[in-house]
Amino acid sequence: MARIELDHIRHAYGPNPKSDADYALKEVHHTWEDGGAYALLGPSGCGKTTLLNIISGLIHPSHGQILFNGQDVTDLSTQERNIAQVFQFPVIYDTMTVYDNLAFPLRNRGVAEADVDRKVRETLEMIDLADWVNKKARGLTADQKQKISLGRGLVRSDVNAILFDEPLTVIDPHMKWILRSQLKELHRRFGFTMVYVTHDQTEALTFAQKVVVMYEGEIVQIGTPSELFERPKHTFVGYFIGSPGMNVVPVEIEGKQARFGGQTVDLPGAPDMPAAKGRMELGIRPEYVRLGREGMPVSIAKVEDIGRHKIVRTQLEGQEIAVILAEDEDVPADPHIVFDTKGINVYADSWRVAWGG
Amino acid sequence: MDKTWNNKAWFMVLPVLLLVAFSAVIPLMTVVNYSVQDTFGNNQFFWAGTEWYQEMLHSERFHTALLRNLLFSFTILAIEVPLGILIALNMPRKGWGVPVCLVLMALPLLIPWNVVGTIWQVFGRVDIGLLGRTLSQLGIHYNYVQNPLHAWITVIVMDVWHWTSLVVLLCYAGLVSIPDAFYQAAKIDGASRWAIFRYIQLPKMNRVLLIAVLLRFMDSFMIYTEPFVVTGGGPGNSTTFLSIDLVKMAVGQFDLGPAAAMSIIYFLIILALSWVFYTVMTSYDAER
């Protein structure tokens, strides 16, 4: 297991990158702690997979260094870095048996056959495939194949980290849940450093201790699931996490108040003013908007009943504000909304502004 | 569940049935008809029964032609399949090299067979051919017209030149269908170049290789035009393959009965061998 440091990594796929737009990965400077479970979350094309392949050594970064336990591995090959990676589509050697699939990485490294046997049987136990030892790998279901891909990483007890590149994409929904809990269990028992790439927020939030949100080649926020929910650092995080995403309204700030249209909203504090320049926005999650008979008058555009609760799309001063309403509550005849102060965040040019004194 | 029977469907099949009848069944039946009768011209036919078949099966001439043809087919398979795989493995996967390689590979396949024969016939001639002249200048007494071994080498090299591309293109198609993740996983697992070939590339090429072997076997077993143009079956009978022999017998000697019997036996051999190839390779595939 290892602590992985990414030291000012930048990457461009084309030669001679000039502007920032040429970089698939703009600048990543981050440390993955030993034994941590991280999720890399972001929309397609945001650079998640590029970052993952840089860690595993399949891509050499244009700039910057990668360190494993303080040692520079930037120029080492994938094999020398001793990394395990599970891909989006299960990669198995289908002419081999399940047993041989797991033994393959060990045999390639010249491990003695007795040790191979011990490790393989241990791993098969861990991934719950002990009954399949002598089956041909080709006849297995997608989730079993994906477990074999994972197993090929686990047999090497000395792997520095296990990387997952959207590993559950092709798995049936109910198996997804089972596999995810097995992964968490493995992490709890053996403490591998795990980095898990996904575009599915539920997957990221349930799997990881720390979620790393990426957007357009940059890390925009690293935090626990609740930090991402309560205090999104960037309006993108607000939109991307949560269902529906955070409401964002352009405002003007005056001391401890925000104004938009004819409305005034009290803030929990005055934004730290030197930072609060440029385009100001107020962000509030639908969970913190109360619909009732008092507050700001709104018109109702649409009510979506999704079972557990209702999502009410309201119009306030020409802005769409989503509100979450409990299943048994009704939309009042003369609707008004109130923003819960503790759920309010203020953004300057899309980045969150801290509260000043 | 009751099945609905609708006999009208048979009418839909009728046109195809007619087409197949005229293009295959009826010609085949004429051959069967010739093979069981004897004729002395004037359209007079006498019943011969299995006489021609017995004669053919015991004929020294047929046996040697058959052996010669089997030797030829297995030789070109042994060269073309490994060579084709090797070339396919080394072809570029992206960039400008891909279309260039594909066009170069497709060229020999586009040349009509008798033209291929003529090219090599001229190419190998000792008096004016580039190959023949060069070799004799170098002091090698190459002469495919008189030396049976040289004639064989020429016919085999010609076939390799003409048909290896087919194996290459089929293998290449199999190779490019392998997702990148497989190679990346193999890197991570520390697989050697050989292990990548053995456990990733070869299994993925399995099916196309089966088709390549079948096609090449059937084609080479029926080979006629190219060796006929180059060597005419000679020197002596050394490059007289089954179909050349068959044409000699039917058109040259006008022995319609034996030639018809030979055609039928020839056809059954190809059918049987192809079936054996197919069964062996697919069962191997299923078992692994």
Write the CATH homologous superfamily of chain B: MetI-like
**Helix fraction bin of chain A:** 10-25%
The appropriate CATH architecture of chain B is Orthogonal Bundle
Low-confidence stretches of chain B: none
Account of the 3D structure:
Chain A: Keywords: ATP-binding, Cell membrane, Membrane, Nucleotide-binding, Transport. Chain A: InterPro entries: AAA+_ATPase, ABC_transporter-like_ATP-bd, ABC_transpr_FbpC, ABC_transpr_MalK/UgpC-like, Mo/tungstate-bd_C_term_dom, NA-bd_OB-fold, OB_MalK-like, P-loop_NTPase. The complex is a heterodimer of chains A (357) and B (288). Chain A is built from nine helices and 23 strands. With 357 residues, chain A is α+β, with helices and mostly antiparallel strands. Chain A has two domains: 4-235, P-loop containing nucleotide triphosphate hydrolases (Rossmann fold), CATH 3.40.50; 246-353, Nucleic acid-binding proteins (OB fold (Dihydrolipoamide Acetyltransferase, E2P)). Chain A starts with a strand and ends with a strand. The model of chain A has no long low-confidence stretch (mean pLDDT 84). With 288 residues, chain B is mainly alpha-helical. Chain B has one domain (61-287): Orthogonal Bundle (MetI-like fold). Chain B contains twelve helices and two strands. Chain B is globular and about 75 Å long. Chain A binds chain B through residues 53, 56, 58, 77-79, 83-85, 87-89, 91, 93-96, 104-105, 108-109, 136, 149, 152-153, and chain B through 179, 181-182, 184-185, 187-192, 195, 199-200, 203, 288.
Summarize the structure in short.
The complex is a heterodimer of chains A (357) and B (288). By secondary structure, chain A is α+β, with helices and mostly antiparallel strands.
Write the layout of secondary structure elements.
The complex is a heterodimer of chains A (357) and B (288).
Chain A: E1 4-11, E2 25-32, E3 37-41, H1 48-56, E4 63-68, E5 71-72, H2 78-81, E6 83-86, H3 98-108, H4 113-126, H5 142-154, E7 161-165, H6 173-190, E8 194-198, H7 201-207, E9 210-215, E10 218-223, H8 225-230, H9 235-240, E11 247-250, E12 252-254, E13 257-260, E14 263-266, E15 280-284, E16 289-292, E17 296-297, E18 299-305, E19 309-316, E20 319-326, E21 336-339, E22 344-348, E23 351-353
Parallel strand pairs in A: 3-8, 3-9, 6-7, 7-8
Antiparallel strand pairs in A: 1-2, 1-4, 4-5, 9-10, 11-15, 12-13, 13-14, 15-22, 16-21, 17-21, 18-19, 19-20, 22-23
Helix pairs in contact in A: 3-4, 3-5
Chain B: H1 9-35, E1 37-39, E2 45-47, H2 51-57, H3 60-90, H4 97-110, H5 113-123, H6 130-137, H7 148-176, H8 180-188, H9 193-221, H10 225-230, H11 242-252, H12 256-287
Antiparallel strand pairs in B: 1-2
